[in-house]
Design brief:
The structure holds two protein chains of two kinds. By secondary structure, chain A is of the alpha+beta class. In chain A, 49% of the residues lie in helices and 10% in strands. Chain B has one domain: Alpha-Beta Plaits (2-Layer Sandwich). In chain B, strand 2 and strand 3 form a beta hairpin. Classes of the chains: A alpha+beta, B alpha+beta.
């Protein structure tokens, strides 16, 4: 066995910044074996090069989302019904095909007035309560939570409770890997979340509305089980809250840390689309792709990944160190960073990418226009960053204005 | 240059039509790519190449139309 690199550069960060080591790994060893803390096999492959990451993520035949029995441990071995990130073709194709028409650019664009209304409501409530405030439960999480609930057809009265259940499944006060009480609390909240959605699916079966669940049932009702619908809805809502929520916290943070870019962001509203792309690239709030498992021996560059071996792809490394036309790793909202892979690559490219872009395009300028004096109440280095979840972020974002 | 799209392969990411709505479109029925302009003008070629390279599933390919083009 060739040597393994001992590094945590792909799982640890320094605030929003990657560890400097990540860029050098990316430049020198774009596909390398690394020692992995907490991993069943003790090591995995780490891909940090643009070509290697694209090759692996687009090869859905030879790289599976489903852990082989040799890699099963804890939750990693469980197939989660309805979670598209746990499926390979042809089953993945069957489920994704039903969902894609609901997420077209035209469909999503129609939601614009509605997203604006949710953002305005959240900002009104924040302004009324006055400073200081924590932006996580007042802005970053409820915006995607309420948008996601409405998309699925969750009654508005239930949305706040449901989002709260979900948020407590992931908003651990401590690292859940070392705290059994925290793990138990998160498990209970997760159950409450899924139980609600299961009940919602049964109700939509009886009375399908104009929402996403209603449409799935009307158009594909015979081809999809209640458990699949529950899993689809839970994953869509959950990943929307986590991923857009992470961006709605870290993008304002990035702008606050770059006052020149924030000034440009406000002075030149016509830059909004490329500013959102640049923020997606720079923040890379999902730093690594879901692990892939080789289904056969695969040569990538000058390395051979053997059957059953695990590969992690660092989206952060590619976005921060490998994109052509992004010579300096700085935040620059005037640059064309549309080659980023913050939404992944291949057939698992984020289904909600257009919706996420819409939410960011509306919510970010609205936040800074409403509160032009927005600033953190603690130095950014003192924020507690979450390094143990797949989504990078902060639990608390304390601000005044 | 002629553009071809593999609708089987397309994952409906919407990237192509977000960048080049004059060349690419998306079906309301299945969410997959549609071609508005299969043979784009020379002034569009660079942009089309960029979009093809970014397609998450490699569903967009570019082909020379005749000997001159190649």
């Amino acid at each position: 066995m060739a040597k393994r690199l001992k590094t945590a550069a792909h799982t640890r960060r320094n605030g929003i910044e990657p560890l400097p080591e990540l860029a050098s790994i990316s430049a020198q060893t774009p596909l390398v074996r690394v020692d992995a803390e907490g991993s069943f096999s003790g090591w995995h492959w780490l891909a940090t090069g643009l070509d290697e990451v694209r090759a692996i993520l687009s090869d859905d035949h030879r790289f599976s989302m489903i852990p082989p029995p040799t890699q099963m441990h804890g939750a990693a071995g469980r197939v989660e019904i309805g979670n598209l990130l746990r499926y390979d073709p042809p089953e993945h194709t069957r489920l994704r095909k039903m969902l894609v028409p609901e997420f077209t650019v035209r469909r999503i664009r129609r939601l614009e007035p509605f997203v604006t209304e949710i953002v305005t409501d959240c900002l009104d409530a924040l302004e009324l309560a006055g400073p200081p405030a924590d932006l996580m439960p007042t802005f970053a999480l409820p915006v995607p939570g309420l948008v996601g609930c409405a998309l699925l057809g969750v009654p508005r009265d239930d949305a706040a409770d449901l989002a709260r259940h979900f948020i407590s499944t992931s908003a651990a006060a401590t690292d859940h890997r070392t705290d059994p009480r925290e793990r138990e609390r998160m498990r209970a909240a997760g159950n409450a979340f899924v139980t609600y959605i299961r009940r919602l699916v049964r109700q939509k079966r009886r009375d399908p509305g104009d929402d996403l669940l209603g449409m799935l049932i009307r158009e594909h009702g015979a081809d999809v089980t209640d458990e699949e619908l529950t899993g689809i809805a839970a994953t869509l809502l959950g990943s929307s809250i986590e991923n857009v929520g992470g961006m709605l916290a870290l993008a304002p943070l990035a702008l606050l840390q770059h006052p020149d870019q924030l000034a440009l962001f406000l002075d030149r509203p016509e830059l909004i689309d490329q500013a959102v792309e640049e923020l997606l690239r720079y923040v890379s709030s999902v730093p690594n792709s879901i692990p892939r498992y080789a289904t056969t021996d695969v040569r990538v560059g000058d390395q051979v990944i053997r059957t059953g071996e695990v590969v992690m792809c660092s989206l952060l490394a590619v976005n921060r160190a490998q994109l052509p036309g992004v010579p300096q790793d700085t935040l620059d909202i005037t640059r064309d960073s549309s080659g980023h892979i913050a939404f992944g690559h291949g057939i698992h490219h984020c289904l909600g990418a257009s919706l996420s872009r819409l939410e960011l395009r509306i919510a970010l300028p609205a936040l800074f226009r409403r509160f032009p004096g927005l600033r953190l109440t603690v130095p950014a280095e003192q924020l507690r960053y979450r390094t143990w979840t797949p989504n990078y972020g902060v639990d608390v974002l304390p601000v005044v204005w | 240059m002629e553009i071809r799209v593999d609708r089987e392969r397309c994952a409906g990411s919407s990237l192509c039509l977000s960048y080049l709505p004059e060349v690419f479109d998306q079906s309301d029925d299945d969410g997959k790519v549609l071609l508005r302009t299969p043979v784009p003008g020379a002034d569009m070629e660079e942009a089309v190449r960029g979009v093809a390279a970014r397609c998450p599933t490699g569903a967009i390919t570019l082909h020379a139309r005749d000997a001159q083009d190649a």
